[in-house]
Design brief:
Length: about 210
């Protein structure tokens, strides 16, 4: 967007006009992405650029994203194995199958009710975050903004932490691929996965380690 505005200062240069046109077309394509709309909705600097339909799409995407995050969180809680129940499983398999079917129906019903209630709660939080006419200056740090607002808007801060962790461009990914080619080469092709992962983590976060 900044480059487009700079190019508009040279309207009589054919190349500048062509590049500006390409940027504008690309910007229109990016704005059709649900992910982009969701990021803009949670960014008070750019939320005002969305119309009502785009806000509706963004909120729908954010509700579904939060639902997936909750499913993963609950799955981690249920991941611990129960060794005692496994040892007796073969003895009572038939009885358990019947009981589990009844229990499954009841839990599914409760789950659907909780899911609808949860979706309404998140949607309400998102509606409250609609800045409408109020706008935040572009100079603020969006990560700092959500860090400061995490206490009052915890669930939205969780969504922001996921969305704004996504790189805006592929430069970081390409840099990591170049680093991987340097680390894992013909002379070091016997590194196991764990060692390679640790080396890549250190290489990709050298600036953070230097700061500490």
């Amino acid at each position: 967007m900044t480059l487009k505005l700079e190019l508009e200062q040279y309207p009589f240069v054919d190349l500048s006009a062509k590049v500006a046109e390409i940027i504008e077309d690309r910007f229109a394509i990016v704005l059709k992405s649900k992910l982009t709309l969701a990021c803009m909705y949670l960014d008070p600097r750019f939320q005002c650029a969305l119309d009502e339909n785009e806000k509706k799409i963004a909120k729908s995407y954010l509700v579904k994203l939060h639902e997936r995050m909750e499913i993963k969180r609950l799955a981690k809680l249920d991941a611990s194995p129960d060794t005692d129940s496994r040892s007796n499983e073969s003895d009572n398999s038939n009885t358990r199958d019947e009981n589990e079917n009844l229990l499954e129906k009841m839990l599914q019903s409760k789950c659907n009710q909780a899911k609808n209630s949860h979706q309404k709660k998140i949607l309400q939080l998102l509606n409250e975050f609609d800045f409408q006419s109020e706008r935040t200056p572009t100079g603020i740090d969006i990560i700092e903004f959500w860090t400061n607002n995490a206490a009052s808007r915890l669930e939205l801060a969780k969504l922001a932490a996921v969305l704004f962790a996504i790189p805006a461009a592929e430069v970081i990914c390409e840099r990591d691929f170049s680093t991987l080619n340097f680390v894992y080469n013909k002379l070091r092709n016997k590194l196991n996965d764990e060692s390679l992962q640790c080396i890549m983590f250190i290489k990709s976060n050298e600036e953070i380690f230097q700061m500490q």
